[in-house]
Design goal:
disordered N terminus, 4 strands, two-stranded parallel sheet, mainly alpha, 10% strand, 216 residues
Length: 216
């Protein structure tokens, strides 16, 4: 586990932003300008598709370019900036490589620090107290609830994001993809694989794992 939090300031800012978002949503629904289903769908799209596409491009480049991968692991922020991604919520990003020996998973135990420039909006379960506390104590059990079974021979490392330091996982490249071009590899990278609660897709056309249920 890593990191110290500027807890009070960051939590206060997140709480204020959340209150504003809920107030705006309520106003839009009340005025008949949007429905809750439509808002939920927009949020889902930004959580799972549009936002994580930046991170998927970073991962795909690392899979095909060993020099870029080396720079990414040495200085994630700078290497990510090479592809044009950066800014707020991404001032310092460390990239963690998952291997056949080690599986990395990311959490923010005290709030919901998250690398927005590469992963978009944090999913609701990432902010849930159950995930934030349980993945530290029993990572294999929690990953199992996400549908991911990690072999007992593989070490699981849990990394705690902070307001000043955020983590992103470089997932293992799926077997049998050596002949795929970079643009097709992008399609294999899921948001969950870059958090560590899932794996990259095995091949083009394979449906992504359904949104996991929130740990109880």
């Amino acid at each position: 586990m890593s990191g110290d939090h500027d807890v009070d300031h960051h939590a206060e800012a997140e709480s204020y932003a959340a209150l504003r978002a809920r107030a705006l949503e309520s106003l839009l629904v009340e005025k008949g300008l949007a429905t809750t289903d439509a808002i939920d769908e927009i949020v889902r799209t930004y959580e799972q598709d549009i936002g994580p596409l930046n991170g998927a491009k970073v991962v795909a480049r690392a899979w095909v370019d060993p020099d870029y991968k080396r720079r990414l692991l040495d200085d994630g922020t700078a290497a990510i900036a090479e592809l044009g991604f950066g800014g707020a919520e991404g001032a310092e990003i460390v990239v963690l490589e998952s291997t056949p020996q080690v599986h990395n998973v990311v959490v923010c135990t005290l709030c919901s620090c998250y690398p927005w420039p590469v992963l978009g909006l944090p999913p609701s379960w990432y902010k849930d107290a159950a995930y934030r506390s349980r993945v530290v104590r029993e990572p294999r059990a929690v990953l199992g609830e996400f549908g991911l079974t990690v072999d007992e021979s593989k070490e699981i490392r849990v990394w705690d994001s902070t307001a000043s330091l955020r983590y992103m996982v470089l997932p293992e490249r799926p077997h049998g993809t050596a002949d795929l071009p970079e643009e097709e590899l992008v399609e294999l990278v899921t948001r969950d694989s870059m958090i560590g609660v899932g794996l990259a897709r095995s091949k083009p056309g394979v449906a992504s794992t359904p949104d996991p249920k929130k740990p109880n």
